[in-house]
Amino acid sequence: MILSYAITDNLKGYLKTIHDLRVKILIYPLPVNDEIILRWKTAEARGDKEIFDYIKQNWYVTAKNIDIVTVKKVYELVSEKRFGPTSGMIEFTEKKLNEFLKYFESSNDHPVIQAALIQAEIINLNPFGDVSEKVARMMSYFMLYKYGYDIRGLVNIEDFYNADLVTYRKFLRMSQNNRTAFLEYFAYALMKSLEKKYDETKKMTDNINSFHDFWRLSVRQQKILELFEEPNKRLRNKEIQKIFKISQVTASRDMARLYKLGLLLAHGKGRGVFYTKA
After folding, report:
1. Neighbours of 20 (CB within 10 A)
2. Do 103 and 1 contact (CB within 8 A), yes or no?
3. Quick check: 34 and 200 in contact, CB under 8 A?
4. Is the pTM of this model over 0.85?
């Protein structure tokens, strides 16, 4: 499969700035609690916690290839409850999507370029109708996380898109035959998002007091977290009830708070849910 795009001077400049910002954010001496607060704020602004938990658990710095099963899994997480299973994807579209995904198996493109390409191509193929755009956006994060570009879990391009959806979709239309314009747009969006996040990181110590009341955990919640210090520890609600001699409602409230703050990951559904350290 041949994709048409050019690595322009603008794109090179954006990629260089992204690299510099990535390094600055990664090495910034941010206290652990402050970093977790920033990650929580990012997750709240970005939304789709279930999807990002899945990405972190399964696709963070991995040699695995993204395939049609991965894309269908994202659709399932995004929209299956509303729109039904992916069996409605026509055979021709699925074949084209498969051909495109195989391109990445041997691609040496910069991770940011790959993230932009996968988004533009899925939107262009439109395999899931009205939710193809949402699935495509999420697949960009898959590609970024796969190559370690989660950047302390602080990457959030959604705010940039949503601030001007008309421009976002204009660049997608401009890139239907040649992806260059969208590559520049995507790299610029990521660059501006990281600039904003770096500014927030530097200001964190100035503004931290406003978050302390929210962040304060009860003694019991702190002790629950300590249980997860054991490697590969997993606990269910019933076990928390038994250990701390508390009701199911109280245990659920504690676990939900720790989950929402990004301190724990939830796995499974219903009564089968168990938690691990984030």
Report:
1. 13
2. yes
3. no
4. no
